[in-house]
Structures are given as C-alpha cells and as structure tokens.
Design goal:
single chain; mainly alpha; two-stranded antiparallel sheet; two-stranded antiparallel ribbon; 11 helices
Length: 282
C-alpha cells in the first residue's frame, strides 16, 4: 500500500501522492481566492493572509481532534510521520483562526468569507482524493454481485493482499459535495447579501458531512453514544453554531447595525483627516 501512495522518490525520500494532492488543494484555494479578491475589490492581502493563518491552525486542529477521537496517541501529536488528520477539527480551528484574524484586521467578516469560501471548497474537493491513495474515506466493502465501477467503488488496503476487496468510495461523494458547493458559492455571492452565501454553503457542507459520516466504514471510525461518531458530534456542534448565527442575522431588528468591523483605514485617509483637522479646528 505504501508503494501505491508513493509518487516518486527524491534522494531516497519518498514523496506521497496524498501530500501532493494536499499541497495542490492549498494552492488551488489560494489562487481562486486571490482572483476573487482582485475582482471584488477585497483587502488585497486577504488570500495570502488567509493561507498563512489557515495552514498552522488547520494542522493544529486536525492533530488535536485526532488525539481526542483516539485516532492517534497523545505522544504522537508532534510526530508528522504518524498519519492522523481530523478534517472537522481542522475546519473548527481554521474558522476560529480566520475570525480572529478578521477581527484584528478590522475586515468585514461576511464579505471576506464570501470571497474565501469558493477557493476553500475547490481545495477541499481536490484534497478528498488524497483518501484514494491512502485507502481511507471509504464505506462498506462491496459484496459479490454488486456492480463495481470506479470511482463509486475503489481500492481498500486489503485489496493489495487479496486483489479482490474493494469498497464504496465515500470520499468521492464528499468530492462532489465540495465541488457543487464551490460552484454555488461563486454564483450565489453575486445575488445574495454579504455573508448569506458563506452561511448557507458552510451550513450545507456541515450538514452533508454529518450524513456522510454514517456511510463511512465504522471499523475505522471512533464511535461514541451508540451509533453517533466523534466526528458527527463535532459537526453537530458546528451546525448548531451556524444555525444560531443565521437566525441571529435574519431576526435582527430593522435598522439594528450588524456586528461587523469597519474596513481598515488607509494611511492616506488618516493623513487627509489630520490635514482637515489642522485647517479647520473645531
């Protein structure tokens, strides 16, 4: 299975297909976001800053939630050679990190997420294919007499031993969800009020990811509270938070200002205001 995930070696060090796809996912998210930043007149460094914030936050959240879900041991938290990246945990920490960044920079939260989410969804769509090479993100093994065609059905780790065992590719359904939501985020943001597209697409993804968790192979997932899995609890809390934000936004009294920070003032604006105060003292 290791050779299946190995793209090539450089100086005796293997480079994994999964790592290449993750890097491509980050690059895609950055490029799409950078293009939208320029077209929509957002803060010029938003795409680059979002990547700088999201990468460490995502890794920290992915590793921490892998420990909490007992996928990896606490002693392996800083061991990058030990596989274990929890996607819901990464999404939680990335969202928190971006919210803090936007608050510090005094950038509009809704408009900024509208710009960043299309690239994020397209990046997620590409990143889901890393599971193909890792033989993860799979559902039950396909039984006898079941039509087996790629990519609905794909390899399992056991396949490389018996040449037979294949499973339903839940990661492919996740790929389709991310791709569809990325397109929706692009189209709807031009018609809806700032922030509405971000809330809708984020809520839709969390809800669908919650459903897809039930299709994944239970033997490789952390199960708590009967049939509810650890990832589903995290996703359910995220879903409640998003619904709460949506309701708060929709039911705000008419004329009540939104809790959105102002655009950062440019140095030129500050100099002009100071000059006006000097010329016309109160």
């Amino acid at each position: 299975m290791e050779s299946f995930n190995t793209a090539f070696t450089i100086g005796g060090v293997p480079l994994a297909w999964s790592a290449i796809l993750v890097a491509l996912a980050v690059f895609t998210a950055f490029i799409v976001s950078a293009v939208l930043v320029r077209k929509r007149g957002a803060y010029k460094d938003l795409a680059l800053d979002a990547c700088i914030v999201s990468i460490p936050c995502g890794l920290l959240g992915a590793r921490l939630f892998s420990v909490l879900s007992c996928k990896i041991a606490l002693s392996s938290f800083f061991s990058l050679s030990t596989p274990g990246l929890n996607l819901p945990g990464a999404l939680v920490f990335i969202t928190i990190g971006l919210l803090i960044y936007l608050r510090v920079r005094r950038l509009p939260v809704g408009e900024s997420f509208d710009v960043l989410l299309p690239g994020a969804f397209f990046g997620l769509a590409i990143g889901r294919w890393a599971d193909f090479f890792l033989c993860e993100g799979l559902g039950p093994v396909a039984g006898e007499g079941v039509p087996k065609f790629f990519p609905l059905v794909t390899f399992t780790a056991q396949y490389f031993e018996d040449g037979v065992s294949v499973a339903y590719a839940v990661f492919f359904l996740d790929f389709l969800v991310c791709l569809a939501l990325g397109i929706a985020a692009l189209l709807l943001s031009r018609k809806w009020k700032p922030g509405k597209t971000a809330l809708f697409t984020m809520t839709a993804y969390v809800f669908l990811a919650f459903i897809l968790e039930w299709l994944r192979d239970g033997s490789t997932r952390s199960v708590v509270f009967g049939g509810i899995r650890f990832n589903q609890i995290v996703l359910f809390v995220m879903l409640l938070a998003l619904i709460g934000v949506t309701l708060y936004t929709d039911f705000r009294k008419p004329g009540e200002p939104a809790d959105v920070p102002d655009e950062p003032a440019s140095p030129e604006t500050d100099e002009a205001e100071n000059a006006q105060d000097t010329e016309d003292p109160a």
